[in-house]
Amino acid sequence: MGLYFDTTKPIYEQIIDYIKKMIVRGELKPGDKLPSQRELARKIEVNPNTIQRAYREMEMLELVETRRGMGTFVKEDESMVITMKNEMAREAVYRFIEEMHSLGYKEDDILSFINTELAKIKKEDN
Questions:
Q1: Which string of DSSP letters, residue by residue, matches 45-75?
Q2: 6-26: pLDDT as tens digits
Q3: pTM of the model
Q4: CATH architecture assignment, domain 11-76
């Protein structure tokens, strides 16, 4: 698990974000079992209480469900995955636009820049 922690954000939130990305990318599918809390804590070298908090928060967000005696599983809800993916994309676009505005770009300049870069990528793919 390639997880490097940022000191500006609580670790449990970073764990939630990482698991969300794994779900959106299809690395974790609806119905997949998550590692046990102790196993994950050992693997990423954090306190088990941090993992417990992350799992509890994800359960409250209805991303996962805990089945007594069986473990914690990704919720079997494809629409949740699509919604989460769209939300993450919107947040990324918003951050990008804010950064471009802070650099002095106007909306037309931003669109032009995006179109130019997309054309380069498309050309590289061919």
A1: T--HHHHHHHHHHHHHTTSEEEETTTEEEE-
A2: 889 999 999 999 999 999 999
A3: 0.80
A4: Orthogonal Bundle (1.10)
